[in-house]
Amino acid sequence: METIHYEQKGNLAFITLNRSDAMNAFNYDMLAELGQVAEAIRINPDIRVVVFTGAGDKAFSVGADLKERKTLTQDQVKRNIYKIGEVFTTIENLPQPTIAMINGYAFGGGMELALACDFRIATDDTLLGLTETSLAIIPGAGGTQRLPRLIGEAKAMELILTARRLKSSEALDYGLVTRLAAPDDLAQVTGEFADSILANGPIALQQAKFAIKNGMNADMQTGLQIERKAYEITIPTEDRVEALLAFGEKRKPEFKGR
């Protein structure tokens, strides 16, 4: 692939937006390739955590490729909007936990990709924001829906309607990012966080994510039923038996994802 770089290290997958010369802006080819990679990861049992980042050291992604956008017809713009929404929803619905490793500017669609991930770890010297209203459009890849669910309606309304660019420290205060790291430490901090997830049962990780994501969109009683069904899936697994054996033998469990 030309616009996406994919690498797998053990049970950890790395997806890099690979258009550093364009600040990793999304053109249609990148969206198509990102969608292909996400679909392949979704059905890969060997992948237990996924990390998204941007090539270079300036930008995670600055959103839509405005140079491309100027050349598109209205129908092609609608095609791109549909595609980016479809791809980001696929990423949000991945069964594996996902981390956005934000190594630089994250604006517009770049911020919306980060919002589609479960966790966001950013450098302590960058800027982030949903800036679409400054271009006379609105966030169209889930930003108007995911941001208020993450930080609350009033704060999300403020950030979207002002098109404000937040310093990463402010984004941490807003609850927009999970944690910060110095640029030179970003990969290490992200890797350590990923390892803390990978140490646990992979089926349990997926079922816990499923229960949380689906339960948040339901009433409490329905959410509890979702949790119970997700729990029941973990009961007959080999990993659950291994965890009990390891506990009794005072050793670390060796999970197989079965």
From TrEMBL:
PROSITE patterns to which the protein is assigned, alphabetical: ENOYL_COA_HYDRATASE
UniProt-listed Gene3D superfamilies: 2-enoyl-CoA Hydratase, Chain A, domain 1, Lyase 2-enoyl-coa Hydratase, Chain A, domain 2
Keyword terms: Lyase
Example GO molecular function: hydro-lyase activity
Gene Ontology biological process terms from the UniProt entry: fatty acid beta-oxidation
Key word Lyase present: yes
Family: Belongs to the enoyl-CoA hydratase/isomerase family.
Name recorded for this polypeptide: Enoyl-CoA hydratase/carnithine racemase
Native source species: Planococcus citreus
